[in-house]
Design a protein that fits this description.
346 residues, 15 helices
Length: 346
């Protein structure tokens, strides 16, 4: 079925994923203290939210892999990410210097650009570096996706699931490689993009997939939480092996959530004026929210508003909502200033 450029179900998925990625950063401060009363609240919210970045890549794949790719379009997309990456890296560096962050306070100004080119100056900006890499190789992914039918795509995605999720997880558990096959031909994030495009463009269901998709999503989340707890106890310290985006349960959860959220939007939100207005207002600021939310969390933390300002089961979602709202307001203001719109593109 032919899709239009604007699909509110994808905006809805992006909104949920944005809430989740903020939730990760709102709760991660408490992850290191396993055994404390708050730890299971942190583990639960972390486990719920770990599908966020895979969902971002899946939405990107759904939107771009069906389109014609040209050098001009690649450079345009790359520029729209590179400018905010540079600008927000500088802004975060200024913030770190102003608060006396030891890692950056003595970094000479002349070394700022080399430092930004080498690695993210703040953790969440890694996504932009990866997105630039994805855009540079769009012709490969788009050509592969457009040239193959569903059975071939599913076969390759099956091999990707084994190689990009099961194999590294088994190695993380055992420190052993059981097969000499190099499974890395289709990298992790490229696979998520192809998965999103396949589910969106080429998979249809005779009956509503909502019940089983929600069950798989919930089961994957529960498995992530339980196995994180068990593995952390086994190694004697909190360990994120089952949180990482190469965890098979994160991949399964992201796949099921993508299907379930599209169905939920279609059944509950499609055609409702208020839902359309919310998504219309969210869409232009979503990228900026991702860029700004960590700084908002830093500021709130300085006022001792963190994952533990009340019971973490409640504090984490409240802190996440506050950071989401404040980041959205900040970016809405930034976007009204002509010279600053480029650092928070829609």
């Amino acid at each position: 079925m032919q899709k239009t450029d604007r699909d509110y179900s994808l905006d809805f998925i992006r909104l949920v994923a944005t809430f989740m990625v903020i939730c990760i950063h709102a709760s991660t401060k408490g992850f290191g203290s396993i055994g404390q009363p708050h730890w299971w609240g942190v583990n639960a919210w972390e486990s719920v939210s770990r599908i966020s970045v895979p969902l971002f890549f899946m939405v990107t794949g759904a939107l771009v892999l069906q389109k014609e790719v040209t050098v001009r379009s690649i450079l345009s997309r790359t520029w729209r990410v590179a400018v905010p990456l540079l600008a927000w890296s500088v802004l975060y560096l200024c913030w770190f210097v102003s608060i006396g962050e030891p890692q950056f306070v003595h970094l000479p100004l002349i070394d700022w650009l080399p430092r930004i080119l080498q690695a993210p100056v703040v953790g969440h900006l890694w996504y932009l570096y990866t997105l630039i890499g994805a855009y540079l190789f769009l012709p490969v992914m788009a050509g592969f996706f457009q040239a193959n039918r569903l059975p071939t795509l599913l076969f390759v995605l099956g091999a990707w699931f084994i190689g990009a999720t099961i194999v590294p997880t088994v190695f993380g558990l055992t420190q052993r490689e059981y097969l000499g096959i190099n499974w890395g031909f289709l990298p992790l994030y490229a696979g998520y993009m192809v998965l999103g495009a396949t589910l969106y463009r080429k998979v249809s269901f005779a009956r509503s997939p909502l019940p089983w998709a929600c069950a798989v999503w919930a089961g994957s989340t529960a498995a992530t939480a339980f196995l994180t707890w068990q593995h952390s106890l086994r190694v004697g310290q909190p360990h994120e092996l089952f949180y990482v985006y190469s965890s098979p349960f994160v991949a399964l959860g992201a796949c099921a959530a993508f299907i379930a959220l599209r169905e939920l939007h279609g059944k509950c939100l499609a055609g409702r004026a208020w839902a359309g207005r919310v998504l219309d207002r969210f869409s232009p600021v979503s990228f900026g929210i991702y860029l700004a939310h960590v700084w908002v969390l830093y500021v709130l933390d300085r006022y001792e508003i963190d994952f533990n300002f009340t019971n973490p089961w409640l504090a984490i979602p409240l802190l996440t909502l506050a950071a989401l709202a404040l980041s959205a307001a900040l970016i809405a203001i930034v976007r009204k200033i002509p010279l600053l719109r480029a650092i928070a593109p829609a």
